[in-house]
Amino acid sequence: MNNVSLWTYEAVQQLKELAKEGMPASVISLKLKRPITEVRAKLAELGITPATEEQ
User: Fold this and answer.
1) What pTM does this model have?
2) pLDDT digits (tens, 9 = 90+) for 18-55
3) DSSP readout, 1-54?
4) What angle do CA 44, 54, 5 make, to 5 degrees?
5) Are 51 and 23 in contact (CB under 8 A)?
6) C-beta pairs of 10-15 under 8 Å, 24+ apart in sequence
7) Domain residues for 23?
8) Cα gap 26→11, rounded to integer Å
9) Total structural domains within the chain
10) Is 24 contained in some domain?
11) Any idea what DSSP says for residue 55?
């Protein structure tokens, strides 16, 4: 079994809400306590483009 954790309905809803609020993937990753690669992959799977990272 791989190390990728499953996305619950609640986690996906929270991901969508944070993305809608304009949070970048790095911040969403911290808030959901998930690796940024998982967050980016799930956003891509959902067809959601995250906000750009602040410089």
Assistant:
1) 0.84
2) 999 999 999 999 999 999 999 999 999 999 998 888 75
3) --SPPPPPHHHHHHHHHHHHTT-BHHHHHHHHT--HHHHHHHHHHHT-PPBPPP
4) 35
5) yes
6) 12/42, 12/46, 15/39, 15/42, 15/43, 15/46
7) 9-46
8) 16
9) 1
10) yes
11) -
Residue 53: inside a domain = no
Predicted confidence at residue 53, as pLDDT, reads 80
Structure tokens at 47: 């067809």
Encode 3-41: b = buried (16+ Cβ within 10 Å), e = exposed.
Answer: eeeebeeeeeeebeebbeeebbbebbbeebebeeebbee
How many angstroms separate the CA atoms of 33 and 27, rounded? 10
Long-range contacts of range 18-23, CB-CB < 8 Å, 24 or more positions apart?
19/43, 19/48, 19/50, 19/51, 22/51, 23/50, 23/51
